[in-house]
Each structure stands twice: as C-alpha cells, then as structure tokens.
Design goal:
By secondary structure, the protein is of the alpha/beta class. The protein has nine helices and twelve strands. The protein folds into two domains: 129 residues, Rossmann fold; 128 residues, 3-Layer(aba) Sandwich (Rossmann fold). Helix content is 37%, strand content 20%. Helix 1 links the parallel strand 1 and strand 2. The radius of gyration is 19 Å and the shape is globular.
Length: 271
C-alpha cells in the first residue's frame, strides 16, 4: 500500500470499534482492486463531532456501527428510502458535499441466505426484535419471503411485528416452530456463552436452512446442532461479508473481490 496525497479515506464510526473486522476486509478489497485508499477505525463517542470530522476531512465513505445507526440519521443530508424504512443507517456515501445514508445490513443477510435458498415465497422464523432482526425482516420482505418474529420481550416484539406486518410469538414457544429458514438475530451463543442455543435442538430438523448472525464463535452451538440435523447453515461472517461487499460497491462503483474479502475476514477473526 502506498499512502500519499491522493489516498482516499474510508472508515468505520462506532464506540467501540477497536474490535471491528471491517478494516481488514475493506483494506484487502481496496488493495486487490488497486484503489489508492485506506479504511480506518474511527472511535466515535460523539457521533455529531465524528460526522463533522468526516465532512471536513473529505472521507469518501464510512460504515456506521453500534451505537450510532439510528442517531446518525439526523446528521446526514439524505437518507435512502430503504434505510428510512428500516430506521437505521450503517453506510455513508459522499456525493460532492453531501453525505447520503444507506443500509446494507439487509443486503448482507439476504445475499448470504440466497447462496443457499430462494427467498421468494420462503417461510422463515426470525429470533429477536433488535436492530439486526429489523434489518433482516425488511430484507426478507424485499425478497418476497414470509416470516414469523419470535422474541423474549413481548412489547418490543409485537411493536416490530406490527411494523413488519408479520405474526409474533414468544421465544418460550419455540418448540412449535417450523418453516424453510430459521434466523438467530439475537446474541445467544456469542462468546463467552458458547454453550447456549436460542432454540431446542429437536426443532431444527423442521428447517432447511439455519442462519446465525453471531460470528464469535464462527460455528455456534445452534449451527453445530443444525448441521447435525441435516440443515444447510449460514454463519454470521457471511452476513458481515456481504454487507461489506455492498458497501464497497456503493463507495467505489467497482465489483467487490468477494473471495479476497472473505479470506481477510477469516484471517482477522482467527487472529
């Protein structure tokens, strides 16, 4: 990598961001595509100050992560209609002096799933009612899938289900679940609680594909049990990969080097 006066700046805004795998993924993509650019982690305890900074420094594009995906929206010049519907922005693109907010989380989830199954007409179950469940739900709707939302907290779950136009059931009723796709959009199974799974093992054989947004560990207990039940599995690194692929293509206008980005993510996670 040669850094000079023409080097383009990209980065990720969040608090914290030191653990992020995105710099490894995007810097590998920039290098493989022979783009004179660098992607940096920008710790942003104050998102308003951070957005002012990227405006002033001419940053070409930025990822946005926890806890700023919603609060950043009021600080941008335009919001993409899909991001507006989702109610969250995870991607900022510069157009001249304007900053445009978009959301690629839903693209990451749907593209990862589409590697294994046709989503049009598929029946899914989404576990969770947070930001990830929301983005995945909108993505499934965009692709023509139907789904049930399943969460622990009734008020939050019913509220999101109403927005998405889908049924809601309590997480304690998971023994009755069935469908084509099961998606864990909760943190259950994440390190250090790797012995936990969000659903009973016996329900997994009723699904064709099981996806977990957790990527540490890469193969959660849920995915291990799903493989044992004969399901196709999609790990959390694939969603992270494909939302990053969409970001790269939005920022650069070039086709993303998917295999290079996947390898960089795997190496960064292993280290």
């Amino acid at each position: 990598m040669i850094i000079n006066g023409k080097t383009l700046l990209y980065g990720i805004l969040g608090n914290p961001v030191t653990h992020s795998l995105s710099p490894a993924m995007h810097n590998a993509a920039l290098a493989a595509s022979e783009i004179n650019g660098v992607y940096l982690p920008f710790p942003a305890p104050d998102i308003e100050a951070a957005v002012t900074g990227i405006r002033g420094l001419g940053v070409q594009g930025a990822s946005v992560t926890i806890p700023h995906k919603e609060s950043v929206m009021d600080l941008l010049d335009e919001i993409d209609p899909v991001a507006r519907r989702i109610g969250a922005v995870n991607t900022i693109r510069r157009e001249d002096k304007k900053l445009i907010g978009l959301n690629t989380d839903w693209l990451g989830a749907t593209r990862a799933l589409e590697e294994e199954i046709d989503l049009n007409g598929a029946e899914a179950v989404i576990l969770g009612a947070g930001g990830s469940a929301r983005a995945i739900g909108f993505g499934l709707l965009e692709r023509g899938a139907k789904f049930v939302l399943c969460s622990r907290t009734e008020s939050r779950g019913r509220s999101l289900a109403e927005e998405l136009g889908c049924p809601w059931i309590s997480l304690v009723e998971t023994e009755n679940l069935s469908g084509d796709i099961l998606i864990n959009a909760t943190s259950v199974g994440m390190q250090p609680h790797i012995a936990k799974s969000p659903v009973p093992e016996q329900v997994l054989s009723r699904f064709q594909v099981v996806m977990d947004i957790v990527y540490a560990p890469l193969k959660t207990r849920l995915l291990q049990e799903a493989e044992g039940a004969g399901c196709k599995v999609v790990n959390g690194l694939e969603m992270l990969l494909y939302q990053g692929v969409a970001q790269f293509e939005i920022w650069t206008g070039k086709t993303a080097p998917v295999d290079v980005m996947r390898r960089a993510l795997a190496e960064a996670l292993a280290s």
